[in-house]
Design brief:
The chain is of the alpha/beta class. The chain has 21 helices and 20 strands. Helix 17 crosses helix 18 and helix 17 packs across helix 19.
């Protein structure tokens, strides 16, 4: 199978559904004109491979019609043109969800009509009819809140009718949607909530909400809350230009949220029709529901809606293959990405660590805080957290006893950075050369390097890492203090730490909830936000510009130093893998698909604000696969025993932490075969 036809490249393989909101051309009470506008938007959506297309409330007849709603000629025309739209849908990909008034048993209902591939699948009536301020719907419409297990005639055909309907593509697991209409999501008891509890991963809202000052923010609030609380994707489409402005005005707002994240938003007050398109990750939604016991408890308390709702199945017809991926994907999922809230988010992340450390200080009242300073990212960040904690508690920074402990491969640059840091932050600073003790230990255990051989194995490295930690613990005891850990979340995920007597252990692991990419960002933020003095900022900049290395193996004959990322992979990729693994439990092939779209082109997608241009990278699929396989082996098979014995430390990011007392609990003797097989079976060779 060629690469361009491999199922991996088809987003549907991974549970994505392309959803769009539409603001079609409409003209007040002109049903034929409106039907033509609906069909035109459906054809445009078809060209963009849209799977599910949502229109505004009453878009076929117009919403602001007052007593024209109860004119027989208009209602007859609506049914005639539903038939026209049904016929037009036969050769179109999108499932269409349009708004129209329908008659049943001497009543008129404000309905959402679902049309797919030449068939009217069903109609869902509006439950809550606003009858206050500018609204007067009860004059014309009957409430649909109690309509269940019913059918309705549409141009001679009987179709399922009621608020008990969800619609599911039988050939695409996860493509399941429910419907509510405008006022329904202003209600304290949303019909969409019941549809979500019945299994719908996507909730649609057809709306004719008129626009007033501040109402757009209110719709965002409700849409975001609905998608978050109902653990779903939530699509909202409001009426736009062409509705009657006798007493009201319309802005045509469309938006789609997924689990509280805004995926896409339309341009408001447009004169021309507009499609607002994004790809919804239904697997992410389903996985989140599996993790959130509260959602399933709520389904039980609601009487198990899945048992009473009718699922209307259909075979979704779509064009398989690579149609791209239309959704925002964060290259750095642990890094704050809200540009308008960057300072607040970084402040919060930094101060979670500071607050946690302060609580441990006030609880144990140590005479000092002992920390090892290498001149690298992790120890630097732990130091600035400790400095801020001392400042806030009114303790002198000399409370921090900082030690730099050069070994066999410590460079002049990092040693100089370590001293500059300690001096800039006013610590009690000392240096202990661990090489004599390391030579003695290597000699005692009979290691070849003690005879002068360049034998730089794991033992050679761990002797140095273990001695550093041993010194720190003995110093803490000697000075009546305790050791601040510097190891970060990324290293814990990959097992890149020396177990027990090495950098794995401390009295309080202040960085254990912070991945490497976030540490880099937070150090940059402390500089840009002037958390410390200019002298400190200069040293922090120098640390940021230093190659990440454990500096345990001497440079080779070319002067090349030991590079962590050349051994375990780029941290920016590993943190991407880690987030999607521990936060959503996504399969490796799904993560690879997301990662490929996020990282394959340096010029596509958004980067964190002010991210240095020279540090921007891109990765092809073979590279992503290589490091993802490495991640799967290290994370699932090699490293859990280290995480099962972690010291205390604060969770910082909603992405998760790896404490066995918190987010992540796993056996230490598992194997990675399942995850490696998923990559082997689902990625192209």
């Amino acid at each position: 199978m060629s690469a361009d036809t491999h199922p991996f490249f088809d987003m549907h393989t991974h549970g994505f559904v392309r959803v769009a909101t539409s603001t079609p051309k409409v003209r007040t009470a002109d049903v034929a004109y409106n039907a033509a506008g609906i069909i035109a938007q459906a054809e445009m959506a078809h060209e963009q491979n849209v799977d599910l297309l949502l229109y505004p409330e009453m878009c076929l007849s117009s919403y602001a019609l007052d007593d024209l709603h109860i004119q027989a000629a208009l209602l007859d025309s609506v049914e005639t043109h539903i038939e026209q739209i049904r016929e037009a849908s036969e050769d179109l990909t999108p499932v269409l969800v349009i708004g129209a008034p329908l008659r049943r048993n001497g009543r008129i209902y404000n309905c959402a009509v679902v049309i797919a591939h030449g068939e009217v699948l069903g109609a869902v009536p509006k439950s809550y009819l606003p009858n206050y301020r500018e609204f007067y719907e009860k004059r014309w419409f009957a409430r649909g809140n109690n309509c269940r297990d019913l059918w309705i005639g549409v141009k001679g055909a009987e179709v399922p009718f009621g608020v008990d309907l969800i619609f599911a593509a039988q050939n695409l697991p996860g493509f399941t949607f429910g419907i509510e209409i405008c006022e329904d999501f202003w209600s304290p008891l949303q019909p969409g909530t019941m549809a979500a509890l019945a299994g719908a991963t996507i909730i649609l809202n057809l709306s004719a909400s008129n626009i007033t000052i501040g109402k757009s923010d209110e719709r965002h609030l409700l849409s975001r809350a609905s998608s978050s609380r109902n653990v779903c994707a939530y699509a909202y489409s409001a009426s736009g230009f062409g509705e009657s402005t006798t007493d009201l005005s319309w802005d045509g707002q469309g938006m789609i949220y997924e689990l509280g994240d805004l995926m896409v938003e339309s341009v408001r007050f447009e004169l021309e029709p507009e499609l607002c398109v994004t790809d919804v990750d239904t697997r992410r939604i389903v996985n989140e529901r599996m993790r959130m016991g509260t959602f399933n408890d709520a389904a039980e308390d609601a009487g198990r809606p899945e048992d009473s709702y009718r699922t209307i199945g259909f075979e979704h017809v779509y064009e398989p293959g690579d149609i791209g991926l239309r959704r925002p994907i964060r290259r750095f999922p642990f890094v704050p990405n809200r540009q308008d809230m960057l300072d607040q988010d970084a402040y919060e992340a930094f101060n979670i660590q500071v607050d946690a450390l302060m609580r441990r200080i006030t609880a144990t009242k140590p005479e000092c805080l002992v920390i090892g300073i290498s001149g690298g990212l992790d120890s630097t960040h732990a130091l600035i957290v400790a400095a801020k904690a001392c400042d806030t508690l009114g303790l002198p920074r000399s409370t921090i006893r900082a030690y730099t402990m050069p070994g066999f491969a410590t460079s002049d640059k990092t040693k100089a950075n370590a001293w500059k840091l300690m001096e800039a932050f006013g610590c009690t600073a000392e240096e202990i050369d661990i090489r004599p003790a390391a030579r003695r230990m290597l000699e005692d255990i009979g290691h070849p390097s003690s005879e002068g051989e360049p034998h730089y194995d794991v033992t050679f490295e761990n002797v140095q890492a273990g001695l550093r930690t041993d010194y720190l613990f003995r110093l803490a005891g000697h000075h009546k203090g305790w050791v601040i850990g510097t190891g970060d979340l990324s290293e814990l995920a990959l097992g890149w730490c020396t177990y027990g007597v090495g950098d794995h252990m401390s009295h309080y692991a202040v960085n254990s909830g912070v991945p490497k990419t976030l540490i880099q960002y937070l150090i940059r933020w402390t500089v840009s936000s002037r958390q410390f003095d200019p002298g400190s900022d200069e040293v922090l900049e120098a640390v940021l510009n230093t190659e990440i290395s454990p500096e345990l193996v001497p440079a080779d004959s070319t002067g090349e130093i030991q590079s962590t990322q050349s051994i375990i992979g780029p941290y920016e990729l590993n943190d991407f893998f880690l987030h999607h693994t521990i936060r959503y439990g996504q399969s490796p092939s799904h993560i690879a698909f997301l990662c490929w779209h996020a990282w394959r082109d340096i010029d596509e997608g958004m980067w964190p604000h002010a991210f240095p241009q020279e540090l921007k990278n891109e990765y092809d699929l073979p590279t992503i696969r290589k490091w993802l396989e490495n991640f799967a082996r290290r994370f699932f098979q090699y490293s859990q025993f280290k995480r099962s014995a972690l010291p205390n430390g604060p969770k910082v990011s909603a992405g998760g932490a790896l404490s066995p007392r918190g987010d992540w609990r796993a056996p230490s003797d598992a194997v990675a075969d399942v995850w490696l097989a998923d990559l082997r079976d689902n990625l192209p060779d």
